[in-house]
Amino acid sequence: MRFFISFFIVLVLFSSCSEHHTGEGATSKQTNSIDSTAYFDSLYAPLREQIDTFFIGKLNRKEFNGSVLIADKGHVVLKKSYGFTSPDEKDSLQLHHRFQLASVSKPFTSAAVLLLADRGKIHLDDSIQVYLDSFPYHGITVRMLLCHRGGLSNYNYFADEYWSDKSKPVSNDSVLMMLYRNQPKPYYRPNEKFDYSNTGYMLLASIVEKVSGESFSSFMKKEIFDPLGMTHSAIYDRCAGVEIQDRLEGYDWKDRKIEDTYQNGVVGDKGMYSTVEDLFLFDRAIHKGKLLKPATWKEAFRSHNPDRGENGKDDYGLGWRLKTSFAGYEVVYHTGWWKGFRSYFIRNITLDQTIILTDNMKRNRFLGIEELLDLADGGSFGSALMSDSLAVEGGNKK
Asked: Is 239 contained in some domain?
């Protein structure tokens, strides 16, 4: 709140001055735009220096290696890469390098489903059997998959049992066949409780493919990435054999390269590669009510698991975690980790602040959500405020 109050006062004064000095014509508008950019760049300089110092310290202690974008009301406060593409420290990280988003892919899978819902091609409260013929588990709706209440067992585990040749990637269709043929026992009855499910989001990607008649990667490119100008984003489908330019590798806590796992053929729950700049384009599209209907975005950020809040855990909407911060701010976010990669996509709706981090070296603890919110708001970096939001909840990635 500290920086927000100061910013608001200065913004009002600046807007007032701009109203009295803005002339007519393109030249005047261009000059005003340049002046305002320089002005905000200067305004954010102290906060930028604080945040930069924070991440330089993390880098020097080998607690972070990645890219950062922090913005306030659409203005970029800091956008920078820290570290190297690999532990040998030969090549410096650049903003164009693409990171595996892990479970930060889930908000995008949700957006694809909700886009089809806006077009009347998917109904959220339909049984998924409407879209996946003869699916052997009854009573599960599309909405339940979106908010992790389907109760199905985790494919990350049963694929290890049923997929014999680990040298070949397993696909969404292959996992579907395991569900049809082997019918692993569900963890819970449909809608019984929240249970974080990678299987659910794999199924959502398969539903998008069935309804659209396109591959998931093709649909995402045509309907989400291209319209928003996300030119450095793609779905990595190992089964398709298509390489992604500037794709980084992940490294474990001993700085060992993690090989491309057979489970990287599955998409929807993970599999999206992107940059902090592209994620910021998605953030601004949400803020401006683009891509989906405003009411649909509102539904995505509505509580669908209120029992979690009652138990002191963060709620979950449709593809997003929901929380009220220690400072009382409304926040939607997602985090991800998978095979050396970590990612954070945090949106402080109250203050219109955006925090995006990507990391490809698993060397230390996660950063806390409260810690990052405090950092973006000009606080003392919240060193004592460690969120428990990132605790592992069933499954080997989030």
From this structure: yes
158 vs 136, 145, 183, 264, CA distance in Å? 16, 18, 10, 15
- In the chain, the number of structural domains is 1
**pTM for the full predicted model:** 0.86
Range of the domain at 359: 2-8+45-89+97-120+215-376
The model's pLDDT over 130-157, given as tens digits with 9 standing for 90+, comes to 999 999 999 999 999 999 999 999 999 9
**CATH number of domain containing 252:** 3.40.710.10
Amino acid at 357: L
Integer-rounded Cα radius of gyration of the chain: 22
Strands (E), the chain: 66-72, 75-82, 99-100, 234-235, 272-274, 315-316, 321-324, 330-338, 341-348, 353-359
Does residue 63 belong to any structural domain of this protein? yes
Residues 6+ apart with CB under 8 A from 47: 3, 72, 77, 78, 378
Q: What is the pLDDT of residue 33?
A: 52
> Mind telling me the catalytic residues?
103
Residue with tokens 């985090």: 335
